[in-house]
Amino acid sequence: MTASAAPETGREVGLRGRLEQFGLATVLTFLDLERRSGELLLLASRGVGRLWLRHGRVVRVRIEGSRRTRKPALYELLAWSDGRFAFTQTDTSEVDDEIGAPTAMLLIEAARRADEQQSDASAATP
Prior knowledge:
The chain has helices at about 25-35, 70-80, 105-125; strands at about 1-5, 10-20, 40-45, 45-55, 55-65, 85-90.
């Protein structure tokens, strides 16, 4: 994870890396522990995702070109295993909290859902 400037915005990127090295759950856990506020951009073969955080909590999630928002969009982004991420610290006080749950609880629920999907898939295989 390194810092650099975001050319499209002129703002300094505080954290960036590859999802293959640091999964989204790890990045969100770090930002939660550090109580950071800002925007996390994900660029992957699957598309572009954006997450807004306030004091470490995810408050809004969007996937470009997708109708999914809120928690379903977050659970989809957590399944992305390749691509890049960049976090830019910004003021998110004007961003509405559309999620309403602590980051740790979201990650636990995402893990439960992934385990359930894996169990269903292995049960369907003869």
